[in-house]
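Sample 3 of the quickstart, ligand fructose -6-phosphate:
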Amino acid sequence: MCGIVGYIGNQEAVPVLLNGLAKLEYRGYDSAGISVYNDGICTIKAKGRLAMLSDKINGEGAVSSHMGIGHTRWATHGAPSDRNSHPHNSQSGKISVVHNGIIENYMELKAFLGENGYHFVSETDTEVVSQLFDFYYDGDPVGTLRKVIGKIRGAYALGIMCSDHPDSLLAVRKDSPLLVGLSKDGNYIASDIPALLEYTRDYYLLDDNEIVFLTKEGVTLYDLDGNQIQKDIFHVTWDIDAAEKGGYDYFMMKEIMEQPEALRKTLLPRMTEDGIRLEALSLTEEEIKNFNRIHIVACGSAWHAGIVGRYVMEEVSRIPVEVDIASEFRYRNPILSKNDLCIIISQSGETADTLAALREAKKQGVKVLSIVNVVGSSIARESDDVLYTWAGPEIAVATTKGYTTQLSMLYLVALHFAKVRGTIEEERLQECLQELRLLPKKTAEVLKLDGKMAELAKKYAQSEDVFIIGRGLDYAAAMEASLKLKEISYIHSEAYAAGELKHGTISLIEEGTLVIAIATQERLFEKLVSNVKEVKARGAKVIAITTQGGCAMEQVADEVIYLPKAADIFTSSYNVLPMQLFAYHTAVERGCDVDKPRNLAKSVTVE
Ligand code: F6R
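Result:
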C-alpha cells in the first residue's frame, strides 16, 4: 500500500518528509513525491526509488519550507510514472493532495469537473480530490473538506495543503489508515507509525471521517458536522520492527488481518448499485457470449484460486473451464481455439512459468485476461486485459490477502460473464452481489476466530502428518489450507477429496492422526459427516470447519469451527480463513520463520 507523511513545524520539512517516506519503503512502492510550501506550492515527484526523488530535489536546489506532504505510491489507477505519482495538484496550483485508498466514483466526478472546466493530467483517481477541493473552495479549508467528503465515495486517507493557508495542513481518513503525530517541534500525519517513530511516540488514531486541522502549534479535530471533538492520545511503546508490522509479530498476520480492507478495495469500486462495472475489460459482449472454453492458468495458491474459479464460472456462466498449473500447461502442447479465453492469475505478476503460459496462449491467438496484484508487472503488461486485485503489497512469502482478493475478482468476472451470457436470473444475481458487498465485513467476523485457532494450533502443533479433506469447493480450500500449513510450519500435510480417501490414503490414518474436515457445502454436508465417521473409526482426531447450523458435526468431530452461512459459491472466501490462522499459529508454535519459510522466495522468477 502507498505511504503518506505530512509535517508542519519548526524543522525543515523536506528532510522530515524524505526520512518518513524512507521508513515506509519496506511496504513497497514504485514512485514518490512531495509538496512543500515556499511562496506557493512546490511539488517534486519521481518514478522509481526514493533516491531518484532526493536527486531531483537536490537538482532543483534546496527548498526551504516548514510544512509539506509526501507520498510513496503503489500503483493502482494508472501505471507507475512521474505524472501519476502523488501529490496531485489542482489546476489552479493552489491545492495539493496525497491519497491512499480508492475513490470509487472518480469517473463520475471527473466527468462533472470536466464539464466545469477542469482538465486532468494524470490517470489517477486521486486527482479528482484536489480538483474537487478547488471547485468547492470558499476560503474555509475545513468546511471545503466536509463538502468534498460528501461527494467522494470509497476508501481514503488524505493529506491536503492549500496555498491560501500556508500555516496549516488538513487530513481525513475513511477505511484507510492515517494517524496524527504530536510533538513540541510540530505536528505530523502518517499512514503508518514507523514513519514518525523518530519524531514522536504520541498519536491520535483517527476514526472514519474525523477531520484534522494541523498547525505547528497544535491539532484540532472535527466531526463531519464541523463540531470540534476531543480524542485520547495513544502512546506507542513499540520498537521500529514491531511498528513496521503494525504491532503484529509477523507480516503474515498483519496481511491476514488486512483482508477485509483489501477485499473492500478490490470489490466495492467495481460494484454499482445493481451490477458490476469492470472498466478495465476490453472484451466485447459479443466475445463474452461466444466463448466456448476458458483456460485458467496459474501456480501455487493462485492455481487454487483458479480451481475455485472453475466451480464458480461453470456454475453461474455455464462456460466449460479447464484449470492448469502453469509449469504443466506450457509443456503439454495445449489445444486452444479461437473462441477460448485464457485467464492468468498471479499476485506478483512475475512468476516465470505463468508468464511463459501466457505467452503460449498468446502465440496460439487466444485472448488473455489476467488477474494480478502488482501494477505494471510483466504479466500485466503482456496481457490483453488486466484486472488488478488492489490488495496492496504482500511481504510475507505465504500469500493470504493475495489469494482471497483473487477469489473475489473471479466472482466478479464470473458474475459479469453470467449477466452478459444471460445464464443467471436477475434475482440470483442480486443475491450474489449482496453477498459480495458483505464479504469484507463477514471476513472481519471470521478473523475473530484467531484466538480459537491459536488454541487448536497449540494442541496440535507437534502433529507429524495432517490430512485435510473436503468435497467440491471445500476440496479447493483443503488444497490451499494444506499448502499454507506445509510451507510455513513444515508439517507434512495432504489435501484429499473426501470421497477419494477410501481408495487408498485412508490406510495412513491411525490413532491420533489429525484430520481437518472442511464441510461448508450444504448439499455435501452429510457426505462429509460420513467421511469424518470413517476416519474417526480409525482413531483420527478431527477438527471440522462448517457453517452455522451444521450441528451434526459436533457428534462426530473432536472440535467444530463455525463459519457464517453463505451461498455455496462464496464459502471459499471464508473456509480458508481459519486455516490461514491455524497454519500461522502452528508455525509460530514450532518456532518457524513465518514470513520467510526455508527454500522459498516471494516471487518465483525462475523456471
Ligand atoms: C503460497 C504462495 C505461492 C504463490 C505462487 C504463485 O503461499 O504464495 O504458491 O501463490 O508462487 O505466485 P504468484 O501469484 O505471484 O504468481
